[in-house]
Amino acid sequence: MTDNELPCVAESTGARPVHAIRPSGLDTFLAGLPVADAAFLRASGFQGKLHELALLPGEAGVRAAVLGLGDSRAPQAFGKLAFALPEGDWRIEAGDHDPADAVLGFCLGAYRFVAFRAAKRPPARLVTGAGVERALSQARGIWMARDLINMPANLLGPAELADAAIALAKRHSAVWSRMEGAALERDYPTVAAVGRGSDRAPVVAMFKWQGSAASDDAPLVSLCGKGVCFDSGGYDLKPSAGMLRMKKDMGGAATVLALARMLMEADLPIRLAVRVGCVENSVSGHAMRPMDVIRTRRGLHVEIGNTDAEGRLVLCDLLAEASDESPALLIDCATLTGAARVALGPELPALFTNDEDWAIRLQDAAHAVHDPLWRLPLWDGYDEWLDSNIADLNNVSAKPMAGAITAALYLRRFVAQGTPWAHFDLYAWNDSSRPGRPEGGEAQIVRAACAAIEARFVPRPEQARTTNAS
């Protein structure tokens, strides 16, 4: 699941063309076509609307295709092509679009989870040109995350998720470690507490990587992911309907691994530290109970107000360790709260951050690469809602409001002072299929985060010239 290639990409000299057209350029395009082709498109009513597709006939069948882009600049404008085009090899002609976005959108739409049944048909294959390797890398990372999220929980437990993280580390010659058993109980007590109710033991997988041009004091980017492979809710048991998608509760871990893969394949001049807490939240005689008190790595004691608020327990020890290393940026990703989905719906991940510069950078990057997110506040006035009568804090709020905010405030308690930190509360799932977004697991915010990190830590040519001149 970490070495997947893209079956929708081909090398060929016999590919048929796809012309991507906007309504504003339609008349010019038609004027340059053979008379019969132009007449065919006019007769078919083609207008260049978003996702509109026309197939041009030839002597041997379909000779070419014309795709409408509408006004969209998002990669997903190309997301229906892989299964709307006839099988075979195709190339997207130059036009009023970014070639890398076209490749990325085509590949995102070509994904299907086929581990347990054959695909109804293979995707069409895209012949790519130069300058699109970053797009292909991002597509591979997103495919990897989707595969992990879509895998049934009986086949992807804590050990298997840790294996996937370590396999990724090995592929990129990163230094990795795997913590379980007594060592995990000692160093990550809240991760251990969440996983104690399952027969499948909890694991923390960690790896560290350094870019080929990164010095030992290069900026450290630290990533932490919630890897709850299945969430029953524990003793605060979810209703059966609430468990139907809980195999995706490790979506934060999958997102972090996809982001790490993209950063490493881009060989950015940074140091990278990745931590994934891999657990299953189950019910047994060993499971944590409501009103238990648990010691954390930070030394704070947490009262368990709700065993179904386990994701923040998985993350808090990881964040404590990661922030003590003084990273230049600390990111965590988690399918943390239903409250974030109530506030923003499934398509808008919630961003919480303690750093205004990174808030702007992440939001700007999200807009630029069409990978949406929305900032919510770390509202200090709600912090006291986490007070406990018998411990340093409770893992849930005393009030049934602002659940995404209070979850973020809980995590903030464990981030070392002065650490630039961004927390993403994700859905990590597509409820239905749309172009470029097939139903099932989804890697949200990875392209936005990757773009923001690169913009911050990779010197631009003009910056390098200024530095050299000084």
Strands, helices and their partners?
Elements (H helix, E strand, L loop, with lengths): L8 E2 L5 E6 L4 H6 L3 H10 L8 E6 L2 E8 L12 H4 L4 E4 L6 H12 L14 E3 L5 H18 L7 H14 L3 E5 L1 H7 L1 H7 L7 E8 L9 E12 L19 H15 L5 E11 L11 E3 L5 E3 L7 H13 L5 E6 L3 H7 L5 E4 L2 H14 L4 E2 L17 E2 L8 H10 L8 E5 L3 E2 L9 E2 L4 H12 L3 H9 L1
Parallel strand pairs: 1-6, 2-4, 2-5, 5-6, 9-10, 9-13, 12-16, 13-17, 14-15
Antiparallel strand pairs: 3-4, 7-8, 8-10, 11-12, 14-17, 18-19
Helix pairs in contact: 4-5, 5-9, 7-8, 8-10, 9-14, 10-13, 12-14
CATH top level assignment of the largest domain: Alpha Beta
> What best-fitting shape do the alpha-carbon axes yield?
elongated
Q: CATH superfamily membership of the largest domain, which one? A: Zn peptidases
Mean pLDDT, to the nearest integer, reads: 96
Any idea how many domains?
A: 2
Helix proportion range: 25-40%
Q: Which class do the helix and strand fractions yield?
A: alpha/beta
Number of helices: 15
Examine the secondary-structure arrangement and name the CATH architecture of the largest domain: 3-Layer(aba) Sandwich
State the CATH topology of the largest domain.
Answer: Aminopeptidase
The fraction of residues in strands falls at 15-25%
Gyration radius, in Å: 24 Å
Major sheet size, sense and barrel closure: 8 strands, mixed
Low-confidence stretches: 463-470
> How many β strands by DSSP?
19
Intertermini distance: 47 Å
What does this structure look like?
The structure is a single chain. The chain is an alpha/beta fold. It has helices spanning 26-31, 35-44, 81-84, 99-110, 133-150, 158-171, 181-187, 189-195, 251-265, 311-323, 338-344, 356-369, 403-412, 446-457, 461-469; strands at 9-10, 16-21, 53-58, 61-68, 89-92, 125-127, 175-179, 203-210, 220-231, 271-281, 293-295, 301-303, 329-334, 350-353, 374-375, 393-394, 421-425, 429-430, 440-441. It is elongated and about 80 Å long.
